[in-house]
Specification:
The chain has 314 residues and is an alpha+beta fold. The chain has three domains: 99 residues, no CATH class; 130 residues, Pseudouridine synthase; 64 residues, PUA domain (Archaeosine Trna-guanine Transglycosylase, Chain: A, domain 4, Roll). It has seven helices and 18 strands. Strands 1, 2, 3, 4, 5, 8, 9, 10 and 11 form a nine-stranded mixed β-sheet that branches. Helix 1 packs parallel to helix 5. The longest helix has 17 residues.
Length: 314
């Protein structure tokens, strides 16, 4: 099974929990994700399955979009609502204009200190493991980019926001640092990821939806019938099977031009041999398909119209 699936991650699940659950549902060992979400966070979690895990290298620096709420009044040790209070509670009287002014200091390329409870490595050990043991976490600031940071509203010290950021940016740190500047402490109360690269919430499916679709496929394989509808007292009625919820391969990596290979080209690519693509001679990399749905390779230009397979997905 080779596919890309977008899960709407529920709160309380780690990204690894979701991967493990999908492995069980699909009975497929080769499953990975394209960017960790904190357990508290919800939303877009892209998963690559089977040979599609080889595409992960193209998403290492993917842009991400979030919506969330920052609560002013006290900081926490994790920088979010799941942590223990790290400062005395206050009753801030911040106005929308004041919070928006604070937000301007976190727009653009900035230096950011990662949270102590994060996956950043300290001497080869994830920082969160040291933090849980109450050991010193000596992290260093890193350069990140916040491309857009809009404060939408504020009520009772809780500021709703929308943000578009480069890979590696921690919105928890943004919340914490804004609280420091405001002099009242703050933490991230909630976070929902609405997009990663070309994937958005409208592409996402719940784990429940995935399980129903997988059961549809198994039922059809056993009976030989057309895709059926599964009824459940605890779940909505969902028709179709996995092909209906997997991302169509033609939508992947939209910045790369696509070409449909002939049988001879497919044979050459299968064996790692270069192919001539005169119509795409100016492109640096291309997606190669066999038919409409089968993405078989990403090829890189060697010279002129000659392209060599960079990764083969057959």
């Amino acid at each position: 099974m080779n596919a890309v699936l977008i899960v709407d991650k529920p709160a309380g699940f780690t990204s690894h929990d979701v991967v493990a659950r999908v492995r069980r549902i699909l009975k497929e060992r080769s499953v990975g994700h394209l960017g960790t979400l904190d357990p508290m966070a919800t939303g877009v979690l892209p998963l690559v399955i089977g040979n599609m895990t080889r595409l992960a290298q193209f998403y290492l620096k993917s842009e991400k979009t979030y919506e969330g709420v920052i609560r002013f009044g006290f900081a926490t040790d994790t920088y979010d609502a799941e942590g223990e209070p790290a400062s005395a509670p206050q009753q801030p009287a911040l106005t929308l204009e004041e919070v928006r002014e604070l937000a301007t200091k976190f727009t653009g390329v900035i230096e950011q200190m990662p949270p102590p409870y994060s996956a950043k490595k300290v001497g080869g050990v994830p920082a969160y493991k040291l933090a849980r043991k109450k050991q010193e976490v000596a992290l260093k600031p890193v350069q990140v980019e916040i491309k857009d940071f809009t404060i939408l509203s504020i009520e009772d010290g809780c500021a709703s926001f929308r943000a578009r950021v480069a890979s590696g940016t921690y919105m928890r740190s943004v919340a914490h640092d804004m609280g420091q500047l405001a002099g009242c402490g703050a933490h991230l109360q909630s976070l929902r990821r609405t997009a990663v690269a070309e994937f958005a919430l409208e592409d996402a499916h719940t784990l429940q939806h995935l399980e129903i679709a997988a059961n549809n496929l198994r039922s059809d394989n056993e009976s030989g019938d057309n895709p059926s509808q599964v009824n459940s007292e605890e779940a909505p009625q969902i028709s179709g099977t996995l092909v209906d919820i997997f991302i169509h391969p033609r939508k992947l990596l939209p910045s790369l031009p696509a070409v449909t290979a002939s049988d001879e080209m497919v044979s050459r690519i299968r064996h790692g041999r270069p192919v001539n693509l005169p119509e795409l001679s100016r492109a640096r990399e291309v997606k190669v398909f066999s038919g409409q749905r089968d993405l078989i390779a990403i090829c890189a230009r060697v010279a002129g119209s000659l392209f060599h397979p960079r990764i083969v997905l057959l």
